[in-house]
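Budget justification aside, the reviewers requested a transparent look at the raw inputs and outputs of the sequence design task funded under Objective 1. We therefore reproduce one unedited record. The lines immediately below are the structure tokens for a 109-residue chain.
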């Protein structure tokens, strides 16, 4: 005797069937798209020689400045021009165009 459960299987629902058909079409189309890729490689071209330069080639190890007395350090800063000399360096290095604000209204007032 034949088992009746296997004879009367429920048919798949429409969304499941649609998904299965679309998946099959997708797989077939991807295989078809890859089949025509006959790439011909030219061996006449010369290969490019790559150069290597280590990032650490010009590395200089940190060396701390010799420790000196606070009076000597203050005299050095005084000879340079004090804190105002350092402030002038900072203001001279800035680009005057960069300090002007950019209006974000895009020409519309």
């Amino acid at each position: 005797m034949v088992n009746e459960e296997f004879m009367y299987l429920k048919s798949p629902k429409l969304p499941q069937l649609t998904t299965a058909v679309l998946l099959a079409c997708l797989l077939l189309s991807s295989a078809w798209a890859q089949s025509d890729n006959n790439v011909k490689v030219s061996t006449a071209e010369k290969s490019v020689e790559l150069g290597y330069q280590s990032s650490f080639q010009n590395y200089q190890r940190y060396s701390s400045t010799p420790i000196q007395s606070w009076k000597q350090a203050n005299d050095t800063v005084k000879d340079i021009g004090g804190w105002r000399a350092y402030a002038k360096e900072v203001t001279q290095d800035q680009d005057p165009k960069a300090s002007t604000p950019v209006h974000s209204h895009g020409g519309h007032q």
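The two ends are 89 Å apart (CA to CA). The chain has a mean pLDDT of 77. Computational costs for records of this kind are itemized in the attached budget.
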